[in-house]
Specification:
Length: 335
């Protein structure tokens, strides 16, 4: 006992020394005492939090957000995926249409002109269509400038001219968007009834609307709009609504949403926008080069009776039965 009492301080000293030696090693192993390991890395913070955010006393509360990791995802999308999606969609459809045109050629009307012209689209319908079309072309060109301008146009015309053009392009994009929204709204009201599904759609789709029959003999019956046109109509209406809502978010930044919402609006606006451009290129093709007699319907508003019978037989029959067919004198006398 006496001996123990005498060695006690020595034992305590040894244990303390051992503790001092062992503890840092253990702590180091756990990574807690290494000053470098202890420092929280930026990545750890980003993993833990959605944002690195503080407090500010200035009116612009957005300045309190120092880092928002989703911004990097958005930048990755805008600089990486988006130009690819846009390039493949737009170039892809142009190549497909060119091949289609050279292999199949335009859809022709088999019957000769009857000389009787009937009204297909009235003035309000044509006004709405051309308002939307003109606005869409301006929006499409100026919109694609956001995606490709810096890469493709700036090297060609130089930074000064590109800057001037882009300022005007952006202004045009912002203001012309209202004309597009108005046009889509009028088309929606004017044509929604004729674009509801009907009993001709399934057969029309099954036969590809006769588009792939080079002999031009396949003419599945259709009412005022066939299934293909209905797909265009709903693309324009639903795509137009998505573009309008996301566009309004972008026109008035941070008025209705925070930074995450702004990025979401940009994802929607850019993706739907480039896909719509590709689909509308196909529509423009079929309305001009792709189908004989189609352009006149939207140009003068009238079509030849035989054209209407071939492409929209159920529409003609219904009007004839009701006696509501509106004839117009032919611009060119029939042969
Ligand atoms: C230069 C451009 C354009 C041309 C030449 C064109 C031509 C035509 C033609 C000829 C029709 C009537 C087809 C028929 O008689 O059955 C039509 C209808 C229509 N167009 Fe266009 N269009 C153009 C641009 C646009 C744009 C930009 C939009 C919308 C963004 C659009 C939306 C529509 C819709 C919804 C219809 C009714 C459904 C249909 O026929 O597909 N068009 N267009």
């Amino acid at each position: 006992m006496h001996v123990l009492k005498r060695v006690q301080p020595v034992l305590i000293a040894i244990l303390m020394a051992a503790g001092l030696l062992v503890a840092p090693a253990a702590a180091q192993q756990a990574g807690s005492s290494n000053p470098t390991a202890q420092a929280v890395s930026e990545q750890q913070l980003l993993d833990e939090l959605n944002k690195i955010q503080g407090r500010v006393t200035i009116p612009d509360r957005k300045a309190a957000t120092l880092q928002q990791p989703q911004g990097r995802d958005y930048r990755g999308f805008h600089e990486g995926a988006l130009p690819w999606i846009a390039g493949i969609a737009v170039l892809g459809i142009l190549i497909v249409l060119a091949i289609f045109y050279f292999i199949r050629g335009p859809v022709r009307t088999l019957a000769r002109e009857s000389g009787v012209r009937i009204l297909r689209f009235n003035t309000i319908e044509r006004f709405a269509h051309w308002l939307t079309a003109t606005a869409f072309i301006v929006l499409g060109i100026t919109g694609l400038n956001f995606v490709f301008g810096k890469r493709l146009l700036m090297p060609l015309i130089g930074p000064d001219a590109f800057s001037t053009w882009s300022i005007w392009a952006k202004l045009a994009h912002d203001f012309v968007s209202w004309a597009f929204m108005l046009g889509v709204l009028i088309m929606l009201v004017a044509w929604i009834w004729d674009n509801l599904p009907d009993r001709y759609d399934a057969h029309w789709l099954k036969t590809g609307g006769g588009l792939f029959d080079k002999s031009n003999r396949t003419h599945p019956p259709a009412a005022r709009f066939n299934a293909g046109q209905k797909l265009i109509f709903w693309t324009v209406v639903l795509g137009g609504i998505a573009m309008s809502i996301s566009g309004i978010f972008l026109l008035f930044p941070f008025s209705y949403t925070d930074i995450n919402g702004m990025q979401m609006a940009q994802y929607v606006h850019a993706t739907v926008g480039v896909l719509m451009v590709a689909i509308i290129i196909a529509h423009i093709y079929i309305g001009t080069l792709g189908m004989e007699g189609a352009y006149e319907a939207m140009g003068s508003g009238t079509v030849d009776l035989n054209w209407a019978k071939e492409h929209h037989s159920a529409w003609v029959e219904r009007q004839q039965a009701k006696g509501t067919i509106v004839t117009r004198s032919a611009p060119h006398p029939a042969e």
